[in-house]
Amino acid sequence: MVLDLGAEKPQTLDNFVAGQNRELLQLLRQFANHAADMPHERFVYLWGESGAGKSHLLHALAAATKARYIPADSAQEAWQYSQETPVYLIDDCERLLPAAQIDAFALFNQVRENGGLLVAAGAAPPAALALREDLRTRLGWGLIYQLHGLTDEEKIAALTHAAQTRGMAVSAGVLPYLITHFRRDMRSLSAMLDALDRYSLETQRPITLPLLRSLLQREGEPKTE
User: What predicted TM-score, i.e. pTM, was given to this entire model?
Assistant: First the structure.
């Protein structure tokens, strides 16, 4: 396979394409810059469709500050509060099993008592999650943000900027075709842009629509025409 998401560039706040989420990105920058010194809201919940960037933002925070990233299926040890960890990041809240819900509830209480910060993410608003009531209440304690996915125009603009930054000459029609015939999240699209650049160099062919179609066929990606 040409495409290797495992080799994807680190997910950071700087390479998150904000779109309609600029206010949220600014808040998370404050979390990253000040961590335990944050004077105001200390709980944030993010929700949105798959591919909107929830996990990207949590991983970015984990890399930018002294934080612990906690996937929904983490072992019990991951949920233990520590005075040495000021920021906790819970992902995929809708997938929390009953035992993990108890652990998450306890963690919320400890973070509140000890002045830490907690950012959680899920596929739906807290009230719509099939979780125990006391945990849903905790998830709704602070600010709740719907993470809006990028429009097709915003994706094309972001990919165009990325291509220009890399000195890539991309023919007209390539990017509009890509976003309608490939996975639609920005991480996958950016990885495919990298793959296109490599494929162009390997084959000594310009980045045109026929080259993209050839690469998609090589990747085995289904067409959606």
Answer: 0.78
